[in-house]
Amino acid sequence: MPLKKRSNKTSKHKNLEEKSRLDNDELIEISEDSESTPATNSKNGGSKITSSTSAKPAKKAVKESRRFVFLLGALVGVLIAVYFGAVQHGATDFEKLVNFESLQDYLDDWKDVIPNGVQNALNDFKQSSPGDGKDFSEDFSVGKAMKAENNLTDKYPVIMVPGVISTGIESWSLEGTKDCPSQPHYRKRLWGSMYMLRTMFLDKTCWLKHIMLDEETGLDPPGIKLRAAQGFEAVDFFMAGYWIWNKILQNLSVIGYEPNKMVTAAYDWRLSYLDLEKRDQYFSRMKQQIELRFKISGEKSILIGHSMGSQIVFYFMKWVEAEGEHFGNGGKDWVNKYIAAFIDISGSVLGAPKAVPALISGEMKDTVQLNALAVYGLEKFFSRRERLDMMRTFGGLASMFPKGGDLIWGNLNGALEDVLHNNTDTFGNFIRFEKPIGKFSAKNLTMSDSIDFLLDNSPEWFNRRTKEHYSYGVAKSPKELKENEKFFNKWSNPLEVPLPNAPELKIFCFYGVGNPTERSYIYQEEEDKEISKLNVSILSKSDKQSVFFTDGDGTIPIMTHAMCHKWKTSPNYNPGGSQIKIVEMKHAPDRFDIRGGAKTAEHVDILGSAELNELVLKVASGRDDLIQERVVTNMTEWVASMDFGFE
C-alpha cells in the first residue's frame, strides 16, 4: 500500500509504523522509543524516510521499505539464532514454539512480502538443519554416542602434544629491560590470549622484545623469561572462544579419562627441539610421566601429536633411546615397552611448504590475499620485515621446512601432484620469479633450492643454528639410515632415520584432504630494497595469481603424509614392522558453522571433527580393531612410484 503524505511529522511516523506492523502486532512490536527516533532525525535532516513537508514524498510498497526489511531481518535473525545456537536440553515450551517448522509456517504466510534474497537464505538454513539426526558438533556428543554404542572405557594413559603456536606462552620474569620491564606482564600470557592482542597493539615494541628469542643462543634474552603454560588450560583454548583440544578432552572424559589418566605435554614451540630439553627438560619430563603411568596402571601410553606435535613425538622416540648427555638413555627397547600407539593427527613430519615463504619474506597466503587497504594497514602496524625478524629467532619454526627435496616435492620438470591440476607450470617449480632483475631473481627454485636460498640470504646465526639442529635430505642407503641415528639433527626427519624397532607399537595417521592448500609461489625481487627492507617478496599484482594450491587440509599438503604410506611397506624405515593404519578424511564443512562443524577436516578444526574424535576414542580404549583404513587420494600409488634408491 502506498504511503500517504501528512503535514504533521509525528502523525506521518505513526502511519509508517502502523504499516510496518502488517496487521500482525503479535509477531512484531514497535516500541515507543522507535517512534520518537525518526522524528528526532527528521528535525536534523537525517531521516530518509521522513522528508520535509515541502518535498514530494516517495511512494514505496510496504515490503520494500527499509524499516520493514530491517525489522523483518532482525526478527528472522533472532529466531534462527535461537534455533541453531541454543543448546538443546529437552523441548521447553519456548523451543516447541520457536523451531524451524513453526518459523516456516510464518514464512509461508509471508512469502508474498518477503524479499527473494531473504527467502533463499532461509531455504539454505532449512537444508542445513540437522533435523532428527544427531548433532555431533555439540559438547560431549561423540563420547556419549561411542560409549553407548561400543561400551568404550578408558584403557591407555594418553599424552597430548599440541602443534606449533597453539600453546600459550607466559611471562615469569620480574626484570625485563630498562625500557620494557617484565613485572607488569608477570604470569600473563604474551602468546595465546586477549592480553597478547592488547599488549601487541598498545606496546608492540616491548611485546616483540619479550616474545623474540636471543639470536645467538636461541634461548631467553637477558632479563626476560617466557615459559609454556601448563595443564589442560594451556591447549584446550587458544584464546576465549577458540577451542583447540577442548573437544578431544571432553570426549575422552566421557569414557572415563581424568587428570590421572591423561595429560597435555605443552611446550615452548619457539625453541629448537634439543633446546626444549636443555632449558626445560621437556623430553625428560615426558619420559618420566610415561614411566610413572606404566608403574601405576601397568599400561603403556598413547602419544597423540597434532601438526608439529607429531614431529615432536617422532623426535622423542629417537631421543629417548639415544645415549649421551641431554639424551634419554632409555635403551633400544624403551618405545616397545612403554608406548602402545602414536596417533599422528594432521602431522607435519615432512614439513609444510608455507614455512619457507614465512622465513624468506615474512609472508604467506593469508597476508598476500588481503586487499590493498588491509595490506597497507598490516604493513604499517606489523611489517613483513618485523614479522621476518621475529620468526627467524624461533628455532622451532625451522623444523617445519619441507623434507625430502626432489623426491617428495618434485623438480623443475614436474611433481607428482601436477596430475591433479591444470597448472601452466609444475609444483616442483616451488618459487618462480616473474622477471629476473638481479641476482636474487636470477633463477627459479625447487624446494631444495628454496631452502638453500633462504639460508644463504639469512643472518649467519640463523644459518648456523638451523644446520646445527635440523636436516632436510634423504638417506641414500640402509647403512646411512642407521648411522644417522647418532646425530640429533637428523631425528626430526623420518627420511633420514628409521622408526624405533618396536613390533608392538601401532601408528595411526589421521589427516584431512580436499581443502585447497598453498604449495608454490610467484615471487618478485624488490626494486627498492631500502624501502621494503627485503630482497624478495611474493608477487603483489592484483590481476595475477601468486599463490598456487594443491590438495591438503588448508595448511599441510597431502605430500607431507607420504611417510605414513612409506612406513606401511618399508622394512628399512619400519624395522620392527609396527602396524600402520591410515584414515584420510574428506573436508566437508558445515557452511553455517564458523569452525566447520562435525565433518570438517581443516588443519586445526579437525580436532573437533566427529570422525577424528571417534578414532581417537577407539585407540585410547583399546578398540582400534574397529578402525577401518580409508585412502581416497593417490598417495599409495605415488609413494610406491618414488625412487628411494635402496628400496
From TrEMBL:
<dbReference type="InterPro" id="IPR003386">
    <property type="entry name" value="LACT/PDAT_acylTrfase"/>
</dbReference>
<dbReference type="GO" id="GO:0097038">
    <property type="term" value="C:perinuclear endoplasmic reticulum"/>
</dbReference>
<protein>
    <recommendedName>
        <fullName>Phospholipid:diacylglycerol acyltransferase</fullName>
        <ecNumber>2.3.1.158</ecNumber>
    </recommendedName>
</protein>
<feature type="transmembrane region" description="Helical">
    <location>
        <begin position="68"/>
        <end position="86"/>
    </location>
</feature>
<dbReference type="GO" id="GO:0019432">
    <property type="term" value="P:triglyceride biosynthetic process"/>
</dbReference>
<keyword id="KW-0812">Transmembrane</keyword>
<feature type="compositionally biased region" description="Acidic residues">
    <location>
        <begin position="25"/>
        <end position="35"/>
    </location>
</feature>
<dbReference type="GO" id="GO:0006672">
    <property type="term" value="P:ceramide metabolic process"/>
</dbReference>
<keyword id="KW-0808">Transferase</keyword>
<dbReference type="GO" id="GO:0008374">
    <property type="term" value="F:O-acyltransferase activity"/>
</dbReference>
<dbReference type="Pfam" id="PF02450">
    <property type="entry name" value="LCAT"/>
</dbReference>
<keyword id="KW-0472">Membrane</keyword>
<feature type="compositionally biased region" description="Polar residues">
    <location>
        <begin position="37"/>
        <end position="55"/>
    </location>
</feature>
<feature type="region of interest" description="Disordered">
    <location>
        <begin position="1"/>
        <end position="57"/>
    </location>
</feature>
<keyword id="KW-0012">Acyltransferase</keyword>
<dbReference type="GO" id="GO:0055091">
    <property type="term" value="P:phospholipid homeostasis"/>
</dbReference>
<dbReference type="GO" id="GO:0032541">
    <property type="term" value="C:cortical endoplasmic reticulum"/>
</dbReference>
<dbReference type="GO" id="GO:0140042">
    <property type="term" value="P:lipid droplet formation"/>
</dbReference>
<dbReference type="GO" id="GO:0005811">
    <property type="term" value="C:lipid droplet"/>
</dbReference>
<dbReference type="InterPro" id="IPR029058">
    <property type="entry name" value="AB_hydrolase_fold"/>
</dbReference>
<dbReference type="GO" id="GO:0005637">
    <property type="term" value="C:nuclear inner membrane"/>
</dbReference>
<feature type="compositionally biased region" description="Basic and acidic residues">
    <location>
        <begin position="14"/>
        <end position="24"/>
    </location>
</feature>
<keyword id="KW-1133">Transmembrane helix</keyword>
<comment type="similarity">
    <text>Belongs to the AB hydrolase superfamily. Lipase family.</text>
</comment>
<dbReference type="GO" id="GO:0046027">
    <property type="term" value="F:phospholipid:diacylglycerol acyltransferase activity"/>
</dbReference>
<feature type="compositionally biased region" description="Basic residues">
    <location>
        <begin position="1"/>
        <end position="13"/>
    </location>
</feature>
<dbReference type="GO" id="GO:0005789">
    <property type="term" value="C:endoplasmic reticulum membrane"/>
</dbReference>
